[in-house]
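Quick start: read one record
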Amino acid sequence: MKFWIISMALFSLTAFAEEPLSVFTGTLGKANIVMELDLNKPDEVTGRYFYQKHRLDLPLNGTLKNNELSLNEGADDFDDTPRPTLTLDHDEQGNWQGTWTDTSGKSLPLILAPAVLPDTADDSYPGSLLHSDPYEYLRLSGLSLVEGKQQTFMGYTLQWWSEPQSQISLFDITSGYPEKERTTINQKLRARLWQEVIGWHACMLSASRFGEGEYSQTVTPTFMNAEVVSISVFTNYDCGGAHPDFGEAPVNLKVQTAEPLSLEDVLWVGEGKPIRYIEAEDRASAGNSDVDFDTFAAYREKFFAPWLVKQMTLAHPTEMAKPTEDSDDDCDYSDPQVWHFPAWYFTAKGIYFGPTFPRVMRSCESPDWSILPWSAIAGHTGRLMLQLPKSS
């Protein structure tokens, strides 16, 4: 599963909305703001807003009674800490007017109108968010990227870009592939960069009741050839939960189409023809699944995980040995369950697989040794019949 999609789903205010969320632009005092409100439940109104100068979310919650909207600014942490308040009335045109009052009693006028958006936008980020997530569209439209270093990797030239506030970085590929393929790949990489920026903002919003969140990311190109582009995206984050966390969410793209690759596109160890299961976040670009999740999970449990344990044990016998009382740690990499849904990406030596452990054993994840050599993959070609290296 992809970490950045999971994290966005956890924090998204749109996840369970019955009707589209209402997005407004306006002014708070003299400052320009953008606000998003979920008005589906009048007794439990939720929302967020940002100052266009700063772009950081401030959470809102309150009630709508007799056409009067009463909101508190800041996370609802069920204590008696004073918070700024917003009181608004609306007219027949859908505009809202009222006041914002800080904890000392100082008030500023607050004026909101339904956001006016372009009629059309292109399919690239942030244009593709115009109708699906206008709030994020308005945020990202006001951000810019800073050009960074150039890098040569496996014969391909990479140009790095970063978003200054979040410090999220990714690269474009500027040479090494034909222009048509390079353009399509770069659109996917740029979309991923902006999606990570959205994830950073979602983390900051979720952590607001506990203070500033933490979200640091390491992006590493791991393999490129005429068939695939593979990138490790590893994130450490603390978004206000019980504990800090981390996750690997690689980018694996087919060069000719820039479609996301599933592991079964690359590697198949089951019976019959390879199945095709596409995760929900990839279906817009990669099409629909041939099988449902239960069928996919059954294949991973019955065929893939036991096979991977066997091959990993041959390649890494010491690391894969079952822990004993004298072992330095309790990480049991011989357990097939931890290999059902690994993170994976290509490397020059083979395919890296990252196991998944229960919360109490998360320190066992992301070992640096768990690469399956190309020689072990030979003869197990996946659905797309990709031409991959045959030895390390």
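The first helix runs from residue 3 to 11.
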